[in-house]
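User: My collaborator sent over this chain with a note saying "see what the structure looks like." That's all I know about it. Can you take a look?
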Amino acid sequence: MAEAASAGNIRRSRFWLYTPFVLLLLVAIAWSVAWFVIRNRADEALDTWLAAEAQAGRQWVCTDRRIGGYPFRIEVACDSLTLNQGAITASFGPVEAVAQVYQPRRIIAEIQGPFTLTDGDVTVQGSWDLLQTSINTSPTGLRRLSLVAEAPKVTVTGLTPEEIATSGQHLELHVRPNPSRMPERAFDAAVSISKANIPVLDRLVGGAEPTDLDADVTLTEAEGIRGRPIVEELERWRAAEGKLDILRLAAAKGPRRVEAKGDLGLDELHRPTGQLTVAAAGLDGLLGNITGNRTGAALLGALFGQNPRSAGQANDGRPPLTPLPPLRLDNGFLALGPFVIPNVRLQPLY
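Assistant: Without extra context I'll predict from the sequence alone. Here is the result:
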């Protein structure tokens, strides 16, 4: 009897010894089944979304689509991603998007170039060393979009007579719907570019130093992608009295610095219009380019506090910013206070 009791105790002790491993195996099997169920639902949801986009006129093509990410993520990868909507065609290189199983409304994607966007007349091309995005959504739509790019390069052809080209060292962009201005279909955007090379700015301001830009803006009457040609979309935005509210714009190019705020739009002839409050330092080269002579530059510099001999030093060793009279863009002219700047005519953007 004692031997039988001892054998029973041994069996019970071994049962509890292996129980944690058995439970862990059962949990792993249950999680694996659940992950594959979630994966299949994600695949079906993606097909449903693509079908809904197609009905709305947006044709997305994810070449060689693959879904993975076991055990805790859902990863969707494409060898290339293209979009066709009306006259608009856009294409990217390989794309990989990732969402955590427990946080499906936050999607992180890494996108490779090259990027091309065209409507047949205007073409935007881009490339980069690294581009990552983060998209946060809710049941009602987009909550926040963030983008980070290393060594971005962008060229725009067909919008103006000359090609628009720029490049930079680092780019950050954050976009969200403005919750207090929903009737205006307003979106807030914060963008920063470091070490940007902007040839048109070099010619205007003088000097080949790279430019650092920071801006906080709100764009009203934004409708997103509607498939219209870029020029038609700009005209729709103008006719709807869309505005670009500049809450803060700061630019630094070598010793030259500018800070501005105000609002901009487009007039009936498609020229920029609006008014900005500006503070600046080191703009002697710009004033010379505007007036076309040193005498005019010296006069404007003296009037607006841009005389380098009279400028002090800021805490960082650079000349302090000096407030300028309001900068007005009106009827194709550029004016500082009551003075219309000679040799400057604002051309239509399209």
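A starting point for your reply to your collaborator: Residues 123 and 177 are 27 Å apart (CA to CA).
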